Amino acid sequence: MQGRIVGKVKRVNGPVILLKGITDARMMELVHVGEMGIVGEIVKLNGDEATVQVYEDTTGIAPGDNVYGTQMSLSVELAPGLIGNIYDGIQRPLEEIRKVSGDFISRGISIDAVDHEKLWHFKPSVAAGDEVAPGMVLGTVAETGRVNHKIMVPSSLEGEYSVVSIASEGEYKVTDEIALIVDKKGNNVHLTMIQRWPIRVPRPVKSRLSLEVPLITGLRVIDSLFPLAKGGTVAIPGGFGTGKTMTQHSIAQWCDADIIVYIGCGERGNEMTDVLREFPHLVDPRTGQSLMERTILIANTSNMPVSAREASIYTGITMAEYYRDMGYSVAIMADSTSRWAEALRELSGRMEEMPAEEGFPAYLPTRIAEFYERAGRMLSLGGFEGSVSVIGAVSPAGGDFSEPVTQHTKRFVRCFWALDRQLANARHYPAISWLDSYSEYVDEIKKWWNDKSGGQWLENRKRILELLQREVRLNQIVKLVGNDALPDSQNFILEVCSLFKTAFLQQNAFDEIDRYCEPEKQLKMLSLILHYYDLGEDAIAKGVPMVKIKRLSVVSEIARMRFNIPNGKSEDVDKLSLKLERSMMQLGSLYGED
Amino acid sequence: MEKIDESILKVSDKSLLKGREYIGASRIDGSLVYMRHTHPVGYGELVEIKTPDGKVKTGQVLDTSDDAVCVQVFEGTDGLSLPGTSMKFLGEPLTLGVSEEMLGRVMNGLGKSRDNAVTPHAFDERDVNGSPINPTSREYPRDFIQTGISVIDGMTTLIQGQKLPIFSGNGLAHNQLAAQIVRQAKVRGGKSDFAIVFAAMGVKYDVAKFFIDSFEETGALENVAMFLSLADDPSIERTITPKTALTLAEHLAFDKGKEVLVILTDMTNYCESLREISTLRGEIPSRKGYPGYLYSNLAEIYERSGKIAGRSGSITQLPILTMPNDDISHPIPDLTGYITEGQIVFDRDMNGRGIYPPVNCLSSLSRLMKDGIGDGMTRDDHPHLSNQLYASYSHVKEVRNLASVIGEEELSEVDHKYIEFGDFFEKKFVNQGYDEDRTIEETLDLGWEALSKLPPEELERLTEEEINEHYKG
């Protein structure tokens, strides 16, 4: 191990190390501890002592070991080659680690995040003499079939530059110089395709834009009832086994973002393997390309070092911001932010800080807020419109939503998909409760939906939520006196709600058709069920018994339409609607009075 | 005692300091011993402790600094005195000499022989803490294990390489169930050829005896490695027992290609011991006094299971934990549930009604089940069937609640059928004998028999073809 010695180890306590004899270390500086070169970050300076949070197991580190500084904050490498990769919490590629250390991860490994040897086809888009500024595009590289990677002037530069020379179109390594630019004072800056950015600092943008477009996930309960806007933030809280990970996987697979960053933060190893094995084989319904061609995975499983778990969230969002700056809409799945908060708690405890609620440090809400504020729809320095949407799973202890992480997260997100234990137990998936969930984005994106539905969507959404509320009250009565005591008109509300749950809210993640539902089909399905309610209500008022309506064969067709009507054939829902009208008419004429 | 001159350390290699011995502790508190003025000792190093009367104990460095080293002593600190304690720092982490010959043997929590026979020749010395498996090296577990127990095979299917804990309560039949799984577990089509690694943490001697007898009965004993740290052994030893056991399991699975089934009982005792040490060290507690790192710590145990691509063996974990006061939201079951791939939850009410195994299948779950069942693995109707059983059984609970208010006679015709279905499901499907070994086909057919109590139009989660083929109306 070589480099500048910044101090020596004084005390080792798990992943927290105290240093002594500090000369010129900086806050958040990346350091290497001992001759193995274990990676850590300086989190506290006090006189000639410093506290280091270490990203690997510290077994064997002894007082007196040297600590080497790098004069750099913990940062990520941003260059072509990120997409399709799988990283640990501090952006080390796991595939490469495997080549070096085998099936088990050993310590002190230092590997470049992207392949420095690979050749990329670079196309310049500026010429010598052009004026450029940070964030502006110098050229492009086709990173994958669908991601056109813009090589930008690094955001870490300031001011205005002019291009002295630019590489001609051809094959380059990411480390090759592709441009020479000069500032007004005549200072030359040599640029490669690599930028570095410290993970804890948000990348700068020109301005924030308002949110207008929903992030379509293909899950009906989300898109139609509790939509998320592109650039928005949402929390998915749920006890274990309620389907957080399943929901996240499903969104990662089918949502209409350009880039997905999936962060497995302190979760199960096998789940990450599942994503890893499955994604390359899944095809995006919109582009026909492999889903891996838009995905970056970060896997810091629960048994990997706790400090790297803390960092993984920032590593992920920094990469997301980088692609946002190119003008892409990026969605981040963080599974789970509770593990990240617990990592904060664990490290804070080791540093013997005074705890606030349930042992969490007092700065927990600040950190949560800082993280979610990095989401948004932005105008980048280069003038592109891009967005980062954050979908954070929360694993509340004991499934109790009143615990600190859920509560503080709720303060900083504007959309909330509450997973419900009862629904999960009944294998109602996605187990998103229609009573506890909410979305504040409805007003911002209603235009998009209403344009698609001739102004119907907002009204329909309101009506169905109202019916579901009435169902709750009616069910309380049923619990006391039984179904038979209710009049048919009220029983019919229960019937419609139950149909709505099986036909609309539930979705089978393993069914070829049902796992993704396009917006057009969703709109029509929702209208159809409300139409059923209207027709049924009329019929009952005319004396048709509820049982007869319920037993219509078209009703069981409605119940199965999510499986039987493929995407792109939403007009079949209209046919079903006509059939329903005919059946109801016939039924009405049997009891004909008019 | 003088402080060692640091300039000497610079020239001397650190390895020269290995094995230095010091006499005289500065403080003893519970199972922790503090010693001052040592050479720079590495974090996590193994320590050999000699009592004044010459007994040797094992310890591990928990905290190391310029002034003092804090060592936890696994065999307990009784008999140690401040001036008379000697400590030798071995310069390496706690290891276990692993060997295939450990199958059939009984060891203590540190892997030392308990049956007075010669310790088997070690194939290799392994760090008991292990290293995390690289997620890219893992193979996603898909192979179904037939346990012969309907409620598990049918509803919460166990998969090779899974970690599936049993959440039980005091006095429930978790030991019987674990023993029955061990006896009956087989890979589809094959014979039971599992190697068993059994770790007992703080359980009573009778419980350990029950397992030994049960293994003996089936002649499986030579295929079982037992790590016993019983209720009367020092509590601190329990904190290392599961790690020792899993180190052997990793060797058997990934070096020797065996299918390994690991039983860890009782994880609650393990966590209690962790809390004990944490409190002793004056750490800041989180929920219910358990240390903030309980999640990470449990994950380091549970995540040591699975399959590795390109290697033939697997580690399947069946941890048993007793929920304090039957509370599933207690930190131990709660954190466990967040790490493991599902859970089998016992229910005191079902136990009271004489149902064995008393599994509450609505709160039980197997996360790996989706990819391990169905056509070619169990039977093509299995996924929809189990889904339907869940849905119908959860409705039974609602109907029963309603019946308790308005009386059973007042129920509608369909609801009566649900009651009938629920009773059949619990008494015939879930309930079975200690020695009853049902094939997966028998289990699924029983499931259909239960569903046939309901009218076919209630079976929304099954396809028409499946209903036509299997429904016995």
List the SSEs and their pairings:
The complex is a heterodimer of chains A (594) and B (473).
Chain A: E1 4-13, E2 16-20, E3 29-33, E4 38-46, E5 49-54, E6 66-73, E7 75-78, E8 86-87, H1 94-101, E9 120-124, E10 131-132, E11 137-142, E12 148-152, E13 161-166, E14 170-172, E15 179-183, E16 188-191, E17 195-198, E18 207-209, H2 220-225, E19 233-237, H3 244-254, E20 259-265, H4 269-278, E21 295-300, H5 306-325, E22 329-335, H6 337-350, H7 364-373, E23 376-379, E24 385-394, H8 404-412, E25 415-416, H9 421-425, E26 438-439, H10 442-453, H11 457-481, H12 488-505, H13 519-541, H14 546-550, H15 553-559, H16 561-564, H17 571-590
Parallel strand pairs in A: 8-21, 19-24, 19-25, 20-21, 20-22, 22-24
Antiparallel strand pairs in A: 1-2, 1-6, 2-5, 3-4, 3-6, 4-5, 7-17, 9-11, 9-14, 10-13, 11-12, 13-15, 15-16, 18-23, 23-24, 25-26
Helix pairs in contact in A: 5-6, 7-8, 11-12, 11-13, 12-13, 13-17, 15-17
Chain B: H1 6-11, E1 21-23, E2 27-29, E3 32-36, E4 45-50, E5 56-65, E6 68-73, E7 86-93, E8 95-98, E9 106-108, E10 124-127, E11 138-139, E12 144-146, H2 150-155, E13 158-159, E14 166-168, H3 174-184, E15 186-187, E16 194-201, H4 205-217, E17 224-229, H5 241-255, E18 259-265, H6 267-280, H7 294-302, E19 306-308, E20 314-322, H8 331-339, E21 342-345, H9 348-352, E22 365-366, H10 369-372, H11 382-406, H12 413-430, H13 440-451, H14 464-470
Parallel strand pairs in B: 9-17, 14-20, 14-21, 16-17, 16-18, 18-20
Antiparallel strand pairs in B: 1-7, 2-3, 3-6, 4-5, 4-7, 5-6, 8-10, 11-19, 12-13, 12-15, 19-20, 21-22
Helix pairs in contact in B: 3-4, 11-12, 11-13, 12-13
